[in-house]
Amino acid sequence: DESESPTSPIDDEWECGARGEEPSRSRGAEERGGMEEWRNGGMEAHPRRKSEPEPNRTGQSVVKVTHSARQTNPPPTSSETTQLVDNLLLRTSQMVKKSDANIVAYSGGVDSSLVAALVQRTFSDSEGLESSSVVRDDDNGSSTSGSVLAILGISPAVPKSQILMARKVADKIGIPLREVQTREGSDERYLLNDGQACYVCKTHLYSTLQLVAESALEIGVAGAEEDLQRKVVMFNGTNLEDTKDPTRLGLLAASEFEVHSPLDCVTKDQVRQAARHLGLPNWNSAASPCLRSRLAMNVLATEGLLKSCGACRSLCQASLGLG
């Protein structure tokens, strides 16, 4: 009942990971209920105008235009923001595996940046260390280790400015960053851009992350049988609003790869709120979707067209003084 809900922007929805329940992973399409309600539930692009005739002193009718007031939540208090971040850290701690390879699918956007910060801090705090990896001795005297790594997929669909921002934010967080080339551009299903490109792209991304992490494990284990059993645990920046967007078919790929989504119970505004609290420099940056999404459906997603989209984007940013 909305009438019984607190006025705080921190609502019950995002608390699903803070009460001891099993943390959720990325939702598949079958779990995205309430989509139409979300789309039509009062989220208007502009306030409605009400017009009514009103006589003036000359007896002529005039039209008085009024704007209905838009309901907004009060700005969050410091204690509410602290509670939000604490609960996100708790939720993330239920997903991070101390003895495994924790990999963040990182883009440099505010969502994945917040996840990178949460995973990095959770892992370090759990071991009482500031570093992103730990090696410790277990009861049998053998060495076990866990790690945290952000991986940035590089392709013609990623703007250069986004890559620069990703490096800057990763350095601020203190999380190791690895950049890898992804190969979705060689997949005909991606090139066709007929509605399945997002799914194909994310499938290639998570496959690449999995291979990179597994290769790193094989190099670092030095043949130890215990270390060979270490697993790869992946995270992404999917938020609550993303899970209700039917166009985000990449969520299906995330579900197939069992990718964890610490933010899938918080809104975009709450993501920015938490990112600002943690001092992330991109907390209020505009969304930077991949360049392929700038193409109309069925326009071939060739490298040439993607580069043209990137050039147009840079020109618009420069014209608007956005850098």
UniProtKB/TrEMBL annotation:
Span list, region Disordered: 1-83
Instruction: Quote the biased-composition stretches of kind Polar residues, using this chain's numbering.
Output: 57-83
Listed InterPro entries: Ni-pincer_cofactor_biosynth, Rossmann-like_a/b/a_fold
Ranges of Basic and acidic residues compositional bias?
A: 16-39
Ranges of compositional bias, category Acidic residues: 1-15
Give the matching SUPFAM superfamilies. Answer: Adenine nucleotide alpha hydrolases-like
The name this protein goes by in its record: Asparagine synthetase domain-containing protein
